[in-house]
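Instructor's aside before we start: the two examples that follow are unrelated to each other. I chose them only because their records fit on one page, so don't look for a connection. First example below.
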Amino acid sequence: MEVLRPTLINIGGRIYRKNTIREVSYQNEEEDDFYRESEQCIDEPCDDFTIRETEKGFQCSIDLPSQLFKYIIGKKGETKRNLESETRTSISIPRPGLEGEIVIAGQNRNGVISARTRIELLSESFRKRQPFTHFLSFALNQPEIQERFLQFKEEVLLKCCKDRGVESTIFQNPAKLHLTIGTLVLLSENEVTQASQLLQSCKEEFLDKIVAGKPLQVKVSGIEYMNDDPAMVDVLYAKVQMKDGSGRLQLIADRLMQRFLGSGLMLRDWDKVKLHATVMNTLFRRDPLAEDRSTISPGKPGQRERESFDGRNLLKLFDNFYFGELSLDTVHLSQRFSADTSGYYTSSGQVRLF
């Protein structure tokens, strides 16, 4: 199965297969044969970046956030030394605390390409281990929605207060009610700018066409839970649906996710965006900083032990609870652990649909 369905890795918008390789050593192999041009290398888009020819050979550079440098260097420089030895290159990395490009130099062009590709694989792997810093969102915190949400909270605490785990601390902050499209790991100001510009480019590429000048009127109504056992609920969310029954909102969310996944900045939480607004989350329990963690999937960095709640009674009483209606007109690049003057997440970029 590993051969038929290998792990896929996104690097710079290209998808690579990560195959299991058994290394074989040949005693009579000549050094130059290791990097000899081959039909496979010519067919593969392995040089989709600039390789500069110099007096001493070849050179290329790669721009990565400084937070990732330590993973390329490794403990006591071991990872960097191994990369240089195995690809027969010299790798220059900026000093700790300094931003800048990693420069790769070598006598053989294929060696430089190999070193760069391996550095990109390492950075992609370690990026996925970082907690997300930003997310694409639609704000759902209009006054009517907030008022209905507070009513929902009051009634739940009144009617379900004896149910295990149900308490006020696990409810969402009404000012931060939102619909999440996807999470991003942005490790430098340059990457924040890149993500903001990418969001702007989506407007002309496909958003205007999908919206077609028609308001995105949605209703927030009904509740669902995210695990299999209603007696052991961790996340309870309100359903978000288009009033006209069209799939425009789902299409917008999916296209945005695909575009940002292709950039390598977004983390894949689902194969398809699930349109939902978290109203209760056990990660909020007695931890105010957990308010932004509603989109973390099992096994992701930042996950901690959580105490579930018994939602059986709540689901029966509030199955069709109506939170209200609103028009969605702006996609935000929201910053985690932040708040603007309205109480919503600080925006690092946004695009208006109307």
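Example two begins here.
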Amino acid sequence: MEPILEIKNLNSFYRQGGNAFTKGKSVQVLKNVNVTIGQGEVLGLVGESGSGKSTLAKSILGMTEYQGEILHRSRRPQMVFQDPYSSLNPAFTIRRIVEEPLRIYGKHTPAQRKQKVEEMLEAVGLGPEFHDRKPAQLSGGQRQRVSIAAALIVRPKLVILDEAVSALDVTIQDQILDLLMKLRREFDLSYLFISHDLNVIYQCCDRVIVMKKGEIVEENTVDGIFDHPVHPYTKQLLKAAE
């Protein structure tokens, strides 16, 4: 499987404490992290709060400083966040929200943007009756469909899903997961799927990495992780999810 992303010996730090006169203490968040994501693969990333999952995602997106190598073999990846309501501009219509990345990209005429937006909204299951609504007029699941459309409109090959279904009820979760798998096939996407919900990870991922305190403690196929966990921390997570 051709890799679409390779991360080699990634280390990340943040400053703890300090003030206008002192820098504070340097705390290491990620410790020699190595990750490869193949083209078309769904890689799950699990670990408790503070394990470094979000820092890894921010590093991939170029949102934080790091040491090491991150090799992209496609356009810069996009992210779908946990809470679509806070990540969508409440003053914009759905059409404008999805169109905005194309405006920033600046390589399409207004007519081309209109067509691409309509096609993408159709792909995520939002027909013309939704295009002129604003986020407050949509349900949580519909807002997450808008977030997915906005992430995919620039046609990335890698999408980071940061707890993308955890704020939804179980029925809507399943619908969004089905949509993500459909879009994966349709657009030949790879996903980095960050979730605390191991049932979701089992349902949609090909391979899983387990992080604890900034380090990868176990990596295997999804069946290998669930059926034959090796690290005590992985066993602990699985037991807690029962």
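The mean pLDDT is 92.
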